[in-house]
């Protein structure tokens, strides 16, 4: 019995570790927004919603683990309610779908910003995202996640969509930077800054696709439901992108202010 619950214990520990990192990132993001007087309400509300969904999934995961602990270790079988446990599983799955929808909306919004004139690209990605969302919502709730063909279909399309969106955003930023450099010419520092933004989007944006690949391997090999961890990574990835970009902006502003103060001609 103890061996059977060990994988669930590891899952809970990983989830709490990621949640701790996520909480620190959110705190840093809030501090930077206050310090820089950020006005991007859409990002602020979306990231707040993702953190609340992550908190909810941690509560659900902890409740389920306590129930399993009572059943398998403490042997309180009479107190175990199968219906409640299954309802919590469905709730955790619903939270993951909601978090995935919010994160996809953020990625689509970034694509719209950098690909605004190419509406057909955005439209095709929206259709893929909506079809993926519909597949997960309307798939039979009675199916066990680890054995569901629909689940693997959903997670595979999800992997493809996130790789595509991340690549489109990072690639477009890099290409615009290159085109601007050729036509107008920009300073070396500005070029590095823009390339740094593209690298940040690519590196941090790949966290979720990597987590999806790990989820597929773990589900196939160990039959462990990784959806709570995926829900956390869904929120961590966009928050990390925003924090890294905000930190870069903060460093650049401080550098400019320092250079201005040290330049005697700038103060006259």
Question: Can you describe what's shown?
Answer:
- The protein is mainly α and 268 residues long.
- It is built from eight helices and no strands.
- Helix 1 (2-36) packs antiparallel against helix 2, helix 4 (119-138) runs antiparallel to helix 5 and helix 6 (188-205) runs antiparallel to helix 8.
- It is globular, with a radius of gyration of 22 Å.
- The termini are far apart.
- The model is unreliable at 140-146 (pLDDT under 50).
- The chain crosses the membrane at residues 12-32, 44-70, 90-109, 121-143, 149-175, 196-220, 226-243.
- Keywords: Membrane, Transmembrane, Transmembrane helix.
Mass-distribution shape: globular
Report the span from N to C terminus.
77 Å
CATH topology name? Rhopdopsin 7-helix transmembrane proteins
Oligomer: single chain
- The share of residues in helices is over 70%
- Class, according to the CATH hierarchy? Mainly Alpha
Largest sheet: none
Q: Helices and strands: which structural class?
A: mainly alpha
Could you list the spans in which at least 5 consecutive residues all have pLDDT below 50?
Answer: 140-146
Total tally of structural domains: 1
Helices, by number, come to 8
Taking all residues together, what is the mean pLDDT?
Answer: 76
Question: C-alpha Rg, in Å?
Answer: 22 Å
Number of strands: 0
- Strand portion, in percent? under 5%
The CATH level-2 architecture is identified as Up-down Bundle
Helix-strand topology string: HHHHHHHH
Short description:
The chain is 84% helix and 0% strand. With 268 residues, the protein is an all-alpha fold.
